[in-house]
Description:
This protein is an alpha+beta fold.
Amino acid sequence: MVVLGACETDLSTRDHDEALTLATALIARGSTDVVASRWATQDSATAVLMAVIHHHLTAGGHAPPDALHATQLWMLNPDHPPPSHPTLHHEATRPDLHHPHLWAAFTHQSNPRPNSHPPKTTPGQRATDQR
């Protein structure tokens, strides 16, 4: 699993095709799950989101899409308990975390064939050829 906290890691600026992003490249090369961002986000809100999603993944035992969903619901709730990370406590209590532009950029993609790589081919051989 890969979690990309940088801005626009699931956005293509050249071909306007979401199939050509860092996130989809990781999926194509065998990553099981990728969480990435569709637009620029604020660093401090993203830090909170990253701490909470990792909490849901590890302590909560959530599957990656469920961890992202739980994190986004957490950010929507103005009465959420702050994460236990002391550095993020102040950021996690800011009153505007429920605004979608701070968290809705993050998406989840998964690989239908986890941990498998495309079959190796020789020049002139198609991937579907069996030898």
